[in-house]
Design a protein that fits this description.
Elements (H helix, E strand, L loop, with lengths): L2 H4 L8 H9 L2 H19 L6 H26 L7 H16 L6 H24 L5 H20 L9 H8 L1 E5 L3 E4 H18 L1 H11 L1 H6 L4 H27 L9 H11 L11 H20 L7 H26 L23
C-alpha cells in the first residue's frame, strides 16, 4: 500500500467503509431518515407499502423535490431565493391565461414560461451580485412584486385551467408497468433533472459554485467570475420553480395560491439534506431526499391523525435542528479530515461526504 493510500482515514477504505463514511455525514444521514420514515409510515398504514401507492406518492412529491434542486443551487452558493412560490404562481397564471384551450399554444407557452423563469432568475442574480443587495431582500421584493401582479391578473380567484394536453404533463402516467402499474410523468421529469443536476455539479460550474459558496474572495482571486456563477444559480432556481409550476398545473389547476409555501418547503428540504446555509457544502441528491423526507413525515403525521396545523411548527423545528446539526457535523468533518503535506506524489482522495455536490 502506498504512502498516499495509507494517509486516508481507516473508514474510507473499501466500498462498505465509504458507504459508512457517507452515511455519517449530514448529506448521507437524510437517506437513512427517509428509509426510517418510510418504514414507520408503512407500519402505521400498510396500504402505503403497495408499490402503486408508493409510486404515486413519489409523483406527487416530485414538484417540491424539483423546487429543492433549484433552491440547492442558490443556497450552496451562499444565497437565498424566497421568490420560488411567487414564480410558481406567476407561471400557473401564464398557463391559464395565455395557453387556455388552444392546444396550438402549448409549445409556445412552455417556451414563454421557461423564458420568463430565466428572466426572473437573471433579475434576482444581477440585483444580488452587481447591485450588492442581499439576496434575502432581493427575492423577498421579487416575491411581493410577483404576488401583486398575479393577484391583479387573476383577480385573486381561480381561473379556467389550460387544455387537457398541457395538463397531461403534470398528471399523465406511463401505464402498463409491471408491479408498480404506472410511472407518473412528474417522477420521470424529476429523475431526468436529478441526473442532470448530478452531472452539472461534477462539471467545472458545480465545483466553482461550491468554491464561491465556501469562500467568494478566494474564488475571485483564483479567476472565478463570482457574479456570473451566482447569477446562474438564481436562473437555475427560477427555472426549477417554473418546471414545478408546469407540473402543478396538471392537478392543482390555476389559482393564485398554487405554490404557496414552496419556498420554505424547498429551503427545509435543502437544509434537512445537510446543505450548509452560507454555502460551500452539500449534495444535490440529499436535497431531493430531504423533500421526500418532509413529505413522508407529513404523511405519517396525517396517518397518525395529527392536526395539519402543526405542519408549520414541525417545519420550523426541522429547519433549526437540521441547520444546527449540519453546521456542526461539517465543521467537525473538516477538523478531523487528515491533510497530507507530501506534495511529491498525486493528491490524496478526499473523504466521501466532505464538500462534493455531485452526490
Amino acid at each position: 500500500m502506498s504512502e498516499h493510500a495509507s494517509a486516508l482515514p481507516r473508514h474510507a477504505h473499501g466500498l462498505a467503509g465509504r458507504a459508512a463514511a457517507s452515511i455519517s455525514t449530514p448529506g448521507g444521514a437524510v437517506f437513512v431518515l427517509v428509509l426510517a420514515l418510510l418504514v414507520a409510515t408503512i407500519v402505521a398504514n400498510p396500504n402505503f407499502g403497495d408499490p402503486g401507492v408508493l409510486v404515486r406518492f413519489l409523483g406527487r412529491t416530485a414538484p417540491i423535490a424539483i423546487a429543492a434542486i433549484g433552491q440547492y443551487y442558490v443556497i450552496v452558493s451562499g444565497e437565498f431565493d424566497l421568490s420560488m412560490a411567487a414564480v410558481i404562481a406567476a407561471q400557473v397564471v401564464v398557463a391559464g391565461n395565455y395557453i387556455g384551450d388552444d392546444t396550438g399554444r402549448n409549445a409556445i407557452g412552455l417556451v414563454l414560461m421557461l423564458a420568463l423563469g430565466a428572466f426572473i432568475g437573471l433579475l434576482n442574480g444581477l440585483a444580488t451580485t452587481l447591485l450588492q443587495v442581499p439576496s434575502f431582500i432581493v427575492t423577498l421584493a421579487m416575491m411581493l412584486a410577483l404576488t401583486g401582479l398575479v393577484r391583479y391578473l387573476s383577480g385573486g380567484a381561480a381561473d379556467a385551467p389550460p387544455n387537457d394536453d398541457f395538463r397531461e404533463i403534470g398528471r399523465g402516467t406511463v401505464d402498463g408497468i409491471p408491479v408498480i402499474d404506472v410511472i407518473p410523468y412528474p417522477l420521470i421529469v424529476l429523475a431526468v433533472l436529478s441526473a442532470l443536476a448530478v452531472w452539472l455539479m461534477r462539471r467545472p460550474f458545480g465545483r466553482t459554485l461550491l468554491a464561491v459558496g465556501d469562500n467568494p474572495a478566494a474564488a475571485h482571486v483564483s479567476g472565478a467570475r463570482v457574479w456570473w456563477v451566482k447569477t446562474r444559480a438564481f436562473i437555475l432556481s427560477s427555472l426549477a420553480a417554473t418546471v414545478a409550476g408546469i407540473l402543478l398545473v396538471g392537478y392543482a389547476g390555476v389559482h393564485p395560491t398554487v405554490g404557496d409555501g414552496y419556498e420554505f418547503s424547498a429551503i427545509t428540504a435543502v437544509v434537512l439534506g445537510g446543505v450548509v446555509l452560507g454555502g460551500g457544502r452539500g449534495w444535490v441528491l440529499s436535497a431531493v431526499a430531504g423533500a421526500f423526507a418532509i413529505e413522508l413525515l407529513f404523511t405519517l403525521l396525517t396517518v397518525l391523525d395529527v392536526d395539519a396545523t402543526w405542519r408549520d411548527t414541525v417545519r420550523g423545528v426541522i429547519i433549526i435542528a437540521a441547520v444546527a446539526f449540519a453546521a456542526r457535523a461539517w465543521t467537525l468533518g473538516r477538523r478531523t479530515t487528515p491533510r497530507t503535506t507530501d506534495l511529491s506524489g498525486p493528491p490524496t482522495e478526499p473523504t466521501p461526504g466532505t464538500n462534493t455536490g455531485g452526490n
